[in-house]
């Protein structure tokens, strides 16, 4: 249940300061006549954060007890007070003193007639006790009200942190001290709460009021800290004290070592003497495995002591319920072992000293080993069984181990050290053919004819041969089909495939129906080519197709075609048609279900011509090589080029220092100095530059008449013979 209080939850006004459950002096002296009416304890509760629990059930459980003369407490009764969400509320608590007054042994019975009462407060949120506090003892009198003025704090205790917090291990008799930190809902430590410590099994471990744990006996338990209903636990594992394991000397002439798991023993045995770490302590009841390892040229003999009857070969497992003493003996003998490796057939390996090892695949049974004296020669012979499970002869494969390199079916081991030999036998191997595809054809080999026709496979499609035999397969497609290729054991081979039958093999031949693809021109006045697999190399020239423009292709093939315009004269690829579409230079044709027709078209380059006119001078340049200039009324440079069909060309008109760009005419009419043209046809554009003018002032003086002409045009005249000066202003070309 999620508790949303913020600690401190509230303050109860009381006439005492509380620190844990400290003894409080009697601060209140009842007044008034003695009667049988209930006494009352009045609290003024300041509930600062209670409003945050509007949806929760919040209550205060009050248990009243009176104190007897000897200090014992007797419960008067328990009451449950529901708290509201008000920030301040009165909490009157009636206490029936009849039982106390009637008890002649109650504390102070012979003094003022009152009772010493202790109140146990429990803060409850949604049926969960989140804090406890003790008030008192208070001196109460029947019918009187006791006011408490000093604050009492309760907290919403939500967790207890334990240190250590992870599983602990102790040995019987050992101790460990746990620490508990009580925290409220904000994570703040609450320091004045009594933690109740306990263990699940006091026979295994006990814990005192300070959190000190004492291990009593072996087993597992949990250490728990609790405040109210809030608790936290840590697992505790108690073990017995360790006991000793000793490896002792025993009569013998060989050498080796004895080691333990878990680690501890690492004892060297040399004849009848031992050295190294031959004694170690292990946890009581622990499982200890001893492993004997013979030195080179030695053989483990036998265990004795505690391992007698508990050993399996070179290993001995002991339960350390008590101290143990063991011995290991080594002898200078050689061990010859025969094993099966890497085969799937049946056979046997025989030899002296009773060796008769039956092999079935990689499993060896029978007598597959022998102990012999050092230096003894051991001749081994392999014999394969006759007919195996596959119905053909089985064969001996190879020797391995210390017989590696031996040829034939014999190997002799000289036991100058421990020796091992392995042998492999092989059963017959089966080749399984699968024919797939919508086309038809036949795969043949000696004793094998497998045919695909009409979507079905018929004939002899499997063959079993002696291990290691090679099978040669030949593929022939029918007239309406094409052999697509191999998968499986023949992957990457041609129509003739050779399979080495060193294991079972599968091979799949796929046949496809032949489909035809045809390339033709879709128009256009340009030149280019369409190329692809299966020899396609088709030339398209001004609407005509020539060259290798058709091919037979297996059904289902993805045919990749590439259109490449001629490199001269600005040729461009105009686009695909029929089975292909778009203007991308590549197209993928899926030859599934029928033949395909693909068209392609190319366009020639488009001519762009530039002219310059007017009285001024300047240049016109472009992104395709135009560099046309006009100087002194003469035009020069590159004024005409060929551009790719459909290309966008930008012309830039730039006047010289004495001129001004006026306008475009032709294809650029209406555009500014920078003109953009789409070259979908031949284009002509003329830029006009005008010479800039400056004012020229003329003055005619003297006694005669006359005129001044500029470039043949009268600019200023004087017709009277007066002495007046005639002034004329005329605009003339700059420069």
Largest sheet: 7 strands, mixed
Give the structural class. Answer: mainly beta
N→C terminal distance: 100 Å
Binned, the helix content reads under 10%
Shape: flat
Determine the number of helices (DSSP H or I, runs of at least 4 residues): 1
- Strand content is over 45%
Mean pLDDT: 84
Radius of gyration: 56 Å
Weakly predicted, low-confidence segments? 1-34, 46-51
Total beta-strand segments: 68
Describe the structure.
With about 725 residues, this protein is mainly beta. The protein is about 0% helix and about 60% strand. It has one helix and 68 strands. Strands 39, 43, 45, 47, 51, 53 and 55 form a seven-stranded mixed beta sheet that branches. The longest helix is centred in the first third of the chain and has 4 residues, at about 100. It starts with 9 loop residues before the first strand and ends with a strand. The relative contact order is 0.05.
Map the helices and strands.
Elements lengths: L9 E5 L24 E8 L11 E10 L5 E10 L5 E8 L2 H4 L13 E11 L2 E13 L4 E3 L2 E5 L2 E7 L4 E4 L3 E3 L1 E6 L4 E2 L5 E4 L5 E3 L4 E4 L3 E9 L2 E10 L3 E5 L7 E7 L4 E5 L2 E5 L1 E4 L4 E8 L4 E7 L5 E2 L2 E5 L4 E8 L2 E7 L5 E5 L5 E5 L2 E5 L1 E4 L3 E9 L10 E7 L8 E6 L3 E8 L2 E8 L4 E5 L2 E6 L2 E5 L1 E4 L4 E8 L3 E8 L7 E5 L4 E17 L5 E6 L4 E5 L2 E5 L1 E5 L2 E9 L6 E7 L7 E6 L4 E8 L2 E8 L4 E5 L4 E5 L2 E5 L1 E4 L4 E8 L3 E8 L7 E5 L4 E9 L1 E8 L5 E5 L2 E6 L7 E8 L2
Parallel strand pairs: 2-8, 11-19, 20-29, 30-38, 39-47, 47-55, 56-64
Antiparallel strand pairs: 1-2, 1-9, 2-5, 3-4, 3-6, 6-7, 10-13, 12-17, 13-14, 15-18, 16-17, 18-19, 20-24, 21-22, 21-25, 22-23, 25-28, 26-29, 27-28, 30-34, 31-32, 31-35, 32-33, 35-37, 36-38, 39-43, 40-41, 40-44, 41-42, 44-46, 45-47, 47-51, 48-49, 48-52, 49-50, 52-54, 53-55, 56-60, 57-58, 57-61, ...
């Amino acid at each position: 249940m999620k508790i949303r209080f913020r600690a401190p939850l509230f303050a109860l006004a009381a006439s005492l300061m509380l620190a844990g459950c400290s003894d409080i002096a009697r601060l209140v002296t009842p007044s008034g006549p003695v009667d049988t009416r209930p006494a009352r304890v009045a609290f003024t509760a300041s509930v600062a954060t209670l409003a945050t629990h509007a949806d929760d059930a919040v209550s205060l459980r009050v248990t009243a007890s009176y104190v007897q003369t000897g200090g014992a407490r007797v419960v008067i009764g328990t009451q449950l007070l529901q708290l509201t969400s008000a920030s301040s509320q009165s909490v009157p608590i009636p206490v029936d003193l009849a039982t106390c007054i009637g008890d002649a042994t109650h504390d102070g019975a012979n003094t003022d007639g009152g009772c010493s009462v202790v109140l146990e407060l429990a803060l409850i949120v949604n049926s969960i006790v989140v804090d406890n506090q003790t008030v008192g003892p208070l001196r109460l009198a029947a019918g009187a009200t006791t006011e408490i003025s000093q604050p009492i704090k309760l907290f919403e205790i939500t967790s207890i942190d334990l240190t250590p917090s992870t599983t602990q291990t102790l040995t019987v008799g050992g101790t460990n001290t746990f620490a508990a930190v009580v925290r409220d809902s904000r994570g703040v430590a609450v320091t004045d709460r009594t933690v109740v410590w306990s263990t699940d099994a006091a026979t295994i471990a006990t814990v005192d009021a300070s959190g000190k744990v004492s291990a009593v006996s072996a087993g597992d338990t949990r250490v728990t800290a609790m405040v109210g209903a809030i608790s936290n636990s840590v697992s505790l594992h108690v073990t017995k004290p360790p006991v000793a394991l000793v490896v002792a000397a025993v009569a013998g002439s060989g050498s080796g070592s004895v080691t333990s798991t878990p680690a501890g023993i690492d004892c060297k045995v040399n004849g009848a003497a031992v050295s190294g770490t031959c004694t170690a302590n292990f946890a009581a009841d622990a499982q200890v495995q001893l492993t004997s390892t013979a030195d080179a040229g030695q053989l483990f003999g036998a265990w004795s002591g505690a391992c007698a009857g508990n050993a399996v070969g070179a290993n001995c497992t002991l339960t350390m319920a008590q101290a143990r003493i063991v011995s290991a003996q080594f002898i200078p003998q050689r061990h010859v072992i025969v094993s099966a490796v890497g085969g799937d057939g049946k056979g046997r390996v025989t030899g002296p000293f009773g060796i008769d090892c039956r092999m079935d695949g990689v499993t060896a049974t029978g007598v597959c080993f022998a102990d012999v004296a050092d230096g003894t020669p051991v001749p081994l012979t392999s014999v394969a069984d006759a007919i195996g499970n596959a119905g053909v002869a089985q064969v001996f494969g190879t020797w391995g181990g210390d017989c590696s390199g031996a040829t034939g079916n014999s190997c002799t081991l000289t036991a100058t050290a421990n020796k091992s030999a392995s042998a492999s036998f092989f059963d017959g191997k089966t080749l399984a053919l699968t024919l797939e595809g919508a086309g038809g054809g036949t795969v043949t080999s000696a004793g094998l004819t497998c045919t695909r026709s009409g979507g079905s496979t018929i004939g002899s499609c499997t063959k079993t041969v002696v291990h290691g035999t090679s099978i040669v397969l030949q593929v022939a497609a029918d007239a309406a089909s094409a052999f697509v290729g191999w998968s499986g054991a023949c992957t990457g081979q041609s129509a003739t495939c050779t399979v080495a039958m060193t294991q079972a093999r599968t091979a799949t031949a796929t046949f496809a129906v032949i489909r035809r693809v045809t390339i033709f021109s879709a128009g256009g006045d340009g030149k280019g080519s369409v190329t692809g697999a299966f020899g396609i190399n088709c030339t398209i020239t001004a609407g005509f197709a020539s060259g290798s423009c058709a091919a037979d292709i297996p059904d289902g093939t993805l045919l990749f075609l590439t259109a490449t315009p001629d490199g001269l004269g600005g040729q461009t690829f105009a686009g695909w048609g029929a089975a292909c579409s778009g203007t991308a230079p590549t197209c993928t044709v899926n030859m599934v279900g029928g033949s395909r027709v693909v068209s392609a078209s190319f366009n020639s380059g488009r001519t762009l011509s530039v002219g310059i006119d007017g009285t001024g001078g300047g240049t016109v340049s472009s992104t395709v090589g135009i560099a046309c200039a006009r100087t002194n009324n003469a035009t020069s440079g590159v004024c005409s080029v060929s551009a790719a069909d459909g290309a966008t060309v930008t012309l830039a008109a730039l006047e010289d220092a004495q001129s001004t760009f006026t306008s475009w005419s032709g294809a650029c009419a209406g555009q500014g100095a920078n003109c953009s043209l789409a070259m979908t046809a031949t284009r002509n554009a003329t830029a006009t530059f005008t010479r800039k003018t400056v004012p020229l002032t003329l003055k005619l003086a003297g006694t005669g008449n006359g005129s001044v002409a500029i470039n043949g045009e009268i600019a200023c005249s004087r017709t009277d013979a007066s002495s007046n000066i005639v002034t004329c202003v005329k605009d003339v070309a700059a420069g």
